Amino acid sequence: MAVEPVVYGASERPPRGDYSRARDDYTCPQNWSAYTEADHDTYRRLYERQSALLPGLAAQAFVDALPALGVRDRIPRFDEINERLRPATGWEIVAVPGLIPERPFFDLLAHRRFPVTDWIRTPQEFDYIVEPDVFHDLFGHVPLLFNPVFADYVQRYGQGGLKAHDLGAGELLSRLYWYTIEFGLIREPQGLRAYGAGILSSSGELRHSVTSPRARRIALDLVRCMRTRYKIDDYQATYFVIDSFEQLFDMTAPDFTPIYDTVRALGELPADASIASDSPITLG
Ligand code: HBI
Ligand code: FE
To answer: Where, by residue number, does Fe cation bind (predicted)?
Structure first.
């Protein structure tokens, strides 16, 4: 095989994808004709359930861009999405067999190429799946790549990731990915909304993260975020809240090298920590 598969977290299972199909940069062709009718049906049902949950919970930019994914009754061809995405923000999506290692992941983002897993979960995994599949990657991540400011943030994140990787700070920076791109909340004029892909593609966590009084929500602060461990197999204990995508973009302009030093000096925090410097976000 060209490349090694990757396993994240505590998972003992081998990864699902077939990495023998991958090129050296971990991308592969989307084997669209290999999807079965059952695969398309799983996508259609996931899309239907999830899109019905969005009103009042999803960020406006996400709701506005979702139709750009195109067909909702079958798994889209990535090429069809790219015909709309390229002219919108200069991004394109590329197929990958599943999770890929940090370095090639950051490299794709830095070049405005978003890796999308091409296989779909089984009907038994309809409500929950540990690894990202094509539904999570497309429905969760791709709509906001149509937003110019957010799209620029993701590229800058990738550029920072390459640097972090060389500095041995990849794990610290991956927490920023987790708490923004995957599980971020945003304050909008109408109230708190979700923009993170892990929330937007989850049936349970969407309502929980935005409305539950039991969830901890604090204003996004780089050092606080990078100190905080995260959960990969449960709802997040803490959500970080932004006021705009410009804030994310501006926040990632400076060189992070001194920030990593600060984060290391202060030490990590459990996922459910509360500290004196937190700025809690209250509901309503
Ligand atoms: N690979 N396909 C894929 N998708 C991800 O979200 C992803 C990955 N590899 C690495 C990775 N994420 C993490 O290191 C991020 O937290 C940065
Ligand atoms: Fe994701």
So the answer is: 136, 141, 182
% of the chain at pLDDT higher than 90: 90
Please write the tens of the pLDDT for every residue from 69-88.
999 999 999 999 999 999 99
141 annotated as a binding-site residue: yes
Hunting for tokens 């990787």 — which residue is that?
A: 165
The one catalytic residue among 92, 165, 174, 201: 201
Antiparallel, parallel or unpaired: β 92-96 and 216-219: unpaired
Over residues 36-66, the pLDDT tens digits come to: 999 999 999 999 999 999 999 999 999 999 9
Query: What is the distance between the alpha carbons of residues 284 and 275, in angstroms, rounded to a whole number?
Result: 23
What are the angstrom distances between the C-alpha of 148 and each of 61, 151, 155, 234? 10, 5, 11, 31
CATH superfamily of 19-266: Aromatic amino acid hydroxylase (1.10.800.10)
Protein residue with least CA distance to atom 10, ligand 1: 102
- 111 is a catalytic site residue: no
| Residue 182 assigned ligand-binding role | yes
12 pLDDT tier (thresholds 50, 70, 90): low
Instruction: Please tell me the number of Cα atoms within 13 Å of 62 on its side-chain side.
Output: 28
